[in-house]
Design a protein that fits this description.
The chain is 77% helix and 0% strand. The protein contains 20 helices and no strands.
Length: 457
């Protein structure tokens, strides 16, 4: 029910200006945390009427965002710790050897490489998976005749696109979108599933068809990433962990299906399993040194996670004021959220409908992804999904899924060149060339996803 007595205050105008300025800074490919901090202060100053209120709003908003993101941060930290342990043991190499045996020709190799990257990205996220899959499988892929640029496209679209936007297992992206939209992550994964599948399938299939004539490799020079000297000797412990690790995660999947574990419960299973597997590997592989090794792996994992999410926390702190988080951050006298009020006002004064709301979600998601993060815009798209869904009586999970898909496909590392560097570096290709090759299939995926969304709203 729209509030007919809604009155816009200076707080609303400051927030709207802040959103526009932040999006503009993102488009200019500049970092936004300083801008977010400045507008957090201005919002606190205007809303609470004092300098102290402005300063406290900055901290309270960051603290609120930190609590919202902590589950995701811990999950990424623990699975990264596991990947570092497997690499030190040499288990990562053993886990990849069976895959190399099915790489018979460039076309088949393109799909095997991409699907392997997708599976590992579901469990480990793309960033650690790039090193895990790319550094070990790429030499086998090139030996089978696959062009390194085609390999980069495959790894990139399957991992940083399909897997990261869907985020089925770790559920970091759905958790952020759902938190801002005041719904459950399982709502996004269930109602948005057709959109994630359409986007992923259309994108990877069109990428394969558009680049099929260039998949076969010519003469290439790969970076030295997998020399025998750099690889640890694979002993009995490496073999045990290479077998045990996938079995443990397979058991997780079976238990999730058997007991209908979703959202936070599913994330807890994956995170706990990663920590247990890392601990077992450390004890078996390093014996008396395992106490120090576990500490090192956990520390490295959290450093990696915090490095990724530090700017996201600051950006999220600003955008959470647009939703129901404002009551916790600035006090119970503030209800509903600033962005929600703007959407209600827009619904009262503009001819907004379901399809226009879907288009706006995709545009805003794409714009927020221009900073190369992919996750920084999810609080905004999630908040907008709640607002627009309520205003035009459309599916909030579907709208949140649209924003999540475009934000991550653009910013997660498939379109913007400054987000493509890890994959481009390990494949020995130019980031700009990889971005240029990715653009047509991703655009086709966006169009197909929007068409599908029109039937689901």
């Amino acid at each position: 029910m729209l509030d007919p007595n809604l009155i816009l205050t200076p707080l609303h105008y400051i927030y709207l200006i802040g959103v526009i300025v932040i999006l503009s800074v993102m488009i200019l490919r500049k970092d936004t945390p300083l801008v977010c901090i400045a507008f957090l202060f201005l919002l606190g100053l205007a809303g609470l009427g004092s300098v102290t209120g402005g300063i406290m709003t900055i901290f309270n908003a960051i603290l609120y965002a930190s609590k919202e993101f902590m589950e995701v941060i811990a999950t990424i930290a623990l699975v990264t710790a596991l990947s570092k342990c497997l690499k030190d043991l040499g288990s990562d190499h053993l886990m990849m050897i069976p895959m190399s045996k099915v790489m018979k020709n460039p076309d088949l190799t393109w799909w095997v490489l991409g699907l392997t990257m997708m599976v590992f990205s579901f469990f480990l996220w793309p960033s650690p998976s790039v090193a895990l899959v790319g550094a070990i499988m790429l030499p086998f892929a090139v030996k089978a005749g696959l062009n390194p640029l085609a390999a980069a496209i495959s790894m990139n679209l399957f991992g940083h696109g399909f897997a990261l936007s869907y985020d089925l297992v770790i559920q970091g992206a759905p958790a952020i979108s759902a938190g801002a939209a005041s719904i459950s992550p399982s709502d996004i994964l269930t109602e948005g599933r057709p959109l994630f599948l359409v986007m992923g399938i259309v994108t990877v299939c069109s990428a394969y068809l558009l680049n099929r004539g260039h998949i076969k490799a010519g003469i290439v020079n790969l970076p030295v990433v997998n020399s025998r000297e750099e690889r640890p000797k694979a002993g009995k412990t490496a073999l045990v962990m290479a077998v045990l690790t996938p079995l443990l995660f397979l058991a997780d999947i079976i238990l999730m299906l058997a007991f209908d574990l979703k959202g936070g419960e599913a994330t807890s299973m994956v995170s706990g399993t990663a920590l247990v597997a890392m601990s077992i590997g450390s004890v078996l592989g390093f014996g008396k040194q395992s106490l120090e090794k576990v500490t090192d792996y956990v520390t490295e994992g959290f450093l990696f996670a915090i490095r990724i999410f530090a700017p996201v926390i600051i950006i999220g702190a600003f955008f959470f004021l647009g939703g129901e988080g404002i009551s916790t951050i600035m006090g119970q006298q503030f209800k509903g959220g600033i962005m929600n009020d703007w959407a209600v006002w827009l619904a009262q004064h503009a001819p907004l409908n379901k399809y226009a709301a879907a288009a706006v979600q995709m545009v805003i998601g794409g714009l927020t992804g221009l900073d190369g993060s992919g996750f920084s815009g999810l609080p905004l798209t999630g908040s907008l999904a709640r607002t627009f869904g309520t205003a035009v009586n459309a599916s909030i999970p579907v709208l949140a899924s649209l924003g999540q898909i475009t934000a991550i496909f653009v910013g997660g590392g498939t379109i913007v060149p400054w987000g493509l560097i890890p994959v481009a570096a390990i494949c020995g290709v130019e980031p700009m060339e990889l971005a240029r090759k990715n653009l047509p299939p991703v655009i086709l995926g966006f169009l197909a996803t929007f068409a599908a969304a029109c039937f689901l709203l």
